[in-house]
Design a protein that fits this description.
heterodimer; A: 457 residues; alpha+beta; twelve-stranded mixed β-sheet; six-stranded antiparallel β-sheet; 40% strand; B: 179 residues; 8 helices
């Protein structure tokens, strides 16, 4: 009996634990487990994961107030029989699972209410603009708002953008602007000194000159940036912060050991958790006007999608994963399935007037594909999101099930048609994010190649 | 051997061992019987035997392999009663899986600890899908009905998330091994 590829074994096991396997699946699994020790190893690891998830969510449910029956059985024998309530070593995710459910319910209720501005004008410190997609605001305590609109004035708080195509511009009274895009969370305040905490995601800031003794501070989990007046972008990941300065100068401090580096115009630097990494400023990465991503090797860590390596003559690819696509009017999350492509330095490719976008993909059933390009202007500021919808049925399929589609970048319509400043992809700008998704349920979208280039160069 | 007579309650240490082992026993049993409802039943039966055999336990031996062996016998007896062995795993395969699982029992706790961190790294949509499947009474059929999808499509979405978790667990354990 030949070895079963792990991908096939994985599919088999998933059908079995989800109760949709048939007798042929069961027999096939038994045959392979008998003959292949590595398959048995994978099986044990898989079933251990399945059991742990089952256990965790059952324990979380038993902690809910309406589980009085189970709680009343808390005798010594019952502790041994049920096990769950004896194990006080509950990981944090379980508390989140129950508490988070309650918070989401409350947020949905509050989000569906009509928002009235209860804030006194003197308490507000920012004004919102360029809102696209799902944006929420909270004061970190009880006040939480969605359905935000351009022109809205808000006090200090937390702004969250949900989904790859979500954007918002936050403008302070002195004209300083902070632009959030993608999935980001920003805490902000201004008591004479602007303090920002970028919990995750990315921002671009155009900072007006600040008092020397009160620079704007941007903090992440690994770094702090002091800004006196500049245009810069900050990307906050769990264990690293990257800063790119377009104009002006900032001081980047690594929180792990307090080491600092000055980052000047057209330079970038990063601060991670590792104190052994050198902290140096280097010239900003200037991408070429030709970029291709295949999946012979894993994609960058900031790209989304489940990576599947090449297998013999079959190419490597990424599978679509669930992604936020916004919220319905009643606050219900909209989940699409997609992949994203990014480069670690922020910019993927330089755009020319005749740049052409090409994608090689496959799907399990006819579906509409969304292809979104997020762009930057030459000065680093947001250049607009542009989205094309195409029907998979219109594309011919090759013998391996793959389809290829090409279109000039200039033909991508703007995502927000009422913004004249984002009406077309910026000339000599950059693409910073590619997002490909299906609009409905998971249609088995796989992507094996992305390519942007000028055909005349 | 445990000095307690069969009529005396087990020692505090024995009870602590049993309590600490519940999750590992459940995971081991699930590997053999595969259905959560069956795993719950077998765990209960195993705990009764562990309680009854407390006096036979030798504190000089590792508790876990001893307890897993008892769980193995209960699982196989349960499968025989359910008459499922001929249809899926035969006696020989169940024994083989059990032997290898007992040999690797020490890996269960690190994997479980890694899972907690890996769950937090999932996106919110991914966590919602996992919660929908694993909360009590969750099923791909019910999830499919609510979403207007098919059980197969939902299972495929879950498959990808499970792969992400498995990969994350492996990486976390590998990273910790090198610290």
């Amino acid at each position: 009996m030949t070895k079963l590829p792990i991908v096939e074994l994985d599919k088999l096991l998933n059908r079995i634990v989800d109760g949709i396997a048939d007798e042929v699946d069961e027999k096939r699994l038994a045959e392979f487990l008998r003959s292949d020790a590595s398959a048995r190893r994978y099986y044990r690891d898989f079933m251990a994961l399945h059991a742990d998830l089952q256990w965790d969510y059952a324990v979380a449910a038993s902690q809910k107030p309406d589980s009085a029956e189970r709680e009343d059985d808390a005798t010594a024998v019952s502790v041994l029989l049920h096990g769950g309530s004896a194990n006080g070593n509950r990981p944090p995710i379980l508390a989140y699972a129950w508490i988070g459910t309650t918070v989401v319910v409350l947020a949905l209720v509050m989000g569906s209410l009509f928002f009235t501005n209860h804030d006194h004008p003197e308490n507000t410190i920012v004004e919102l603009d360029n809102i696209s997609g799902s944006i929420t605001w909270s004061n970190g305590v009880q006040d939480r708002r969605s359905g935000l609109t351009d022109g809205m004035k808000l006090p200090a708080g937390t702004i969250t953008t949900e989904g790859e195509s979500a954007t918002v511009q936050v403008r302070f009274a002195d004209g300083t602007m902070v632009f959030l895009s993608g999935k980001s969370e920003l805490v902000y305040s201004d008591d004479g000194q602007k303090r920002l905490e970028l919990r995750h995601g990315s921002l671009t800031a155009g900072v007006r000159p600040q008092p020397v003794d009160s620079p704007m501070l941007i903090r992440t989990s690994t770094a702090e940036v002091e800004v006196l007046g500049t245009i810069l972008s900050v990307l906050a990941e769990e264990d690293e912060t990257k800063v790119n300065v377009e104009s002006g100068k900032v001081l980047l401090k690594r929180l792990a050991d307090g080491r600092c580096v000055t980052v000047s115009r057209n330079h970038s630097a990063s601060a991670s958790l590792s104190t052994s990494d050198e902290m140096t400023s280097r010239e900003s990465y200037e991408p070429s006007d030709r970029w291709r991503r295949t999946y012979d090797t894993p994609p960058t860590s900031n790209s989304k999608g489940q990576y599947c390596p090449p297998n013999g003559s079959a190419p490597g690819y990424v599978e679509a994963v669930p992604c936020w696509a916004g919220r319905e009017a009643d606050g219900t999350p909209i989940i699409h399935h997609g992949v994203t492509a990014r480069e670690l330095d922020g910019r993927i490719v330089k755009l020319r007037s005749d740049s052409v976008f090409t994608i090689r993909y496959r799907v399990d059933k006819p579906v509409y594909l969304r292809v979104m390009l997020s762009t930057q202007k030459p000065d680093g500021w947001f250049g607009g999101n542009f989205e094309m919808k195409l029907s998979s049925e219109d594309m011919p399929v090759d013998a391996d099930g793959w389809s290829t589609f090409s279109i000039p970048v200039s033909e991508f319509p703007p995502l927000e048609s009422n913004r004249i400043e984002y009406s077309e992809p910026p000339a000599d700008g950059y693409v910073s994010l590619i997002f490909v998704a299906t609009t409905s349920n998971d249609s088995g979208l796989d992507v094996s190649e992305l390519f942007i280039a000028s055909p005349t160069r | 051997m445990n000095n307690a007579s069969p009529l005396e309650p087990p020692s505090a240490e024995y009870i602590a061992n049993v309590t600490r082992s519940q999750r590992s026993l459940y995971a081991f049993i699930m590997t053999l019987v595969r259905q959560p409802a069956d795993a719950d039943d077998v765990l209960q039966e195993t705990n009764i035997i562990l309680w009854q055999k407390a006096a036979e336990y030798d504190p000089e031996r590792d508790f876990m392999p001893w307890a897993l062996r008892i769980a193995q016998f209960q699982a196989m007896a349960h499968l025989k009663r359910q008459q499922r062995i001929p249809k899926t795993f035969d006696d020989e395969l169940v024994k083989l899986i059990a032997e290898e699982a007992i040999a690797d029992a020490a890996e269960l706790d690190p994997r479980r600890r890694a899972l907690a961190g890996c769950l937090q790294k999932l996106s919110e949509p991914q966590r919602e899908l996992i919660a929908g499947r694993y909360e009590p009474k969750g099923s791909v059929n019910e999830m499919a009905r609510r979403r207007g999808s098919t059980p197969k499509a939902v299972s495929e979405s879950l498959r990808r998330i499970r792969r992400v978790l498995l990969t994350c667990i492996e990486r976390t354990i590998a990273r910790e091994a090198h610290v």
